Amino acid sequence: MCGIVGIVSSHAPVSNELYDALLVLQHRGQDAAGIVTAHSDRCHVHKGNGLVSEVFNVPTIDRLQGNMGIGHVRYPTAGTSSSHEAQPLYVNSPHGICLAHNGNLTNVKQLREEYFSRVRRHINTLSDSEILLNVFANELQTSSRVEKLLSPEDVFEAVGRVHQTCRGGYAVVSLIVGVGIVGFRDPRGIRPLIVGVKRGVVDDFIIASESATLAVLGYEILRDVQPGEAVFIDAQGQFHSQDCADNSQRTPCIFEHVYFARPDSVMDGISVYKARLRMGERLANTVLDYFPNREHDIDVVIPIPETSRTAAIPVAHQLNVKLREGFVKNHYIGRTFIMPGQSMRQRGVRHKLNTIALEFEKKNVLLVEDSIVRGTTMTEIVRKAKNAGARKVYVASAAPPVRFPNVFGIDMPASQEFIAYNRSIEQIRQIIGADLLIYQKLKDLVSAAQEGNPQIEQFECSVFDGHYYNEDVDEGYLAALAESRNDESKKIREVDFDF
Length: 499
Fold this sequence. Notes:
The chain has about 500 residues and is an alpha+beta fold.
């Protein structure tokens, strides 16, 4: 999962706003960050491994001149943290194109072979983002007419052929030097993308992964980029858009609402905050079903920071018990389920959360979590709760069991590393040490999100139901994916691409 942003300003350099935008999107990737800006016929780039505040400082931001630019934050793909794959990426022809990508292509093997052999483009990393960049550059070169400047129609024609060529989930912002910024979204709209306009300035635009970015920077939401659509803001601040795909069907990723997105964001017309409240309401009803006559013995509801806090509010309300903060989180430790190596994850969990013992002593505690992936975090949390004096520890997950890999841009572990893989809920309960384990029902999760925008008929729920939408994802693909994502592969995957 990554965060992307592009800004075009009619009157001011954009480097400071891009930096601020990446800070807002930091939750979408803590491994690397980068910004590219364009000034006249030159582009300026700075990127590297680390948090946004670690990669950039005042001198580096000041050197990023220009009134249009793009930015990116990423987390490691399959456990790697190579600086060679920090984005935005650049190719010099045609015009000079930089690209930042959130998502994953599922036909990478085919594209890599084609662009090495037939198109004669060199792919220098293992990143599917570099392949996507070269596909877009090649199609843009095909669309361009030498007798005139690049037009919006040329851009849209190129994006249309990208949609025909690339499969998977992707949201993209791309800077074309001297021309403008284009943003586009896969034909199913799996990965989010939204466009906004500066308050009081009609020709300043932003394209970003989440609407929270727009609000913080003083932009108003114009609308979501539609599935298969491309939006193009030229260097003069003129806005253009076009549907570039046939048979688009909006199926956004439901895991954005469960876990990844900020609660103050709106995606595809759905408030993430309200969706999580509704998840909590439905989860509370399921919790009550586990008790005879729906009469529970829960003394307190405690959310596991941070994402589950919103869902825990209506759970406590409907159970008519107190909601309390029982854990203090160390915000300087990243998301543990994507950490490479079990020992590192266990160490991360131990240091990430500390208990407030008085909220656990001699109480029956219901812990509310947004989702359970590997189970490493939850096992340690249950142990901490019992060590703090809890009589009973119940666990409720606002999402169903995660049993299948995500192939559309969330770098979850191999299926065999999921705690729910080939296990019953009772077996999972025993492993994590809880007295009771309750999962959200998938139909309830979907309805909680769908209620925010009834026009969305389907969501991408493959991590829960194993249903993938394209032909590339077969048993062979999933086996290769599992091999690349297991812990042993992550230990040896780092490759040096310097020449």
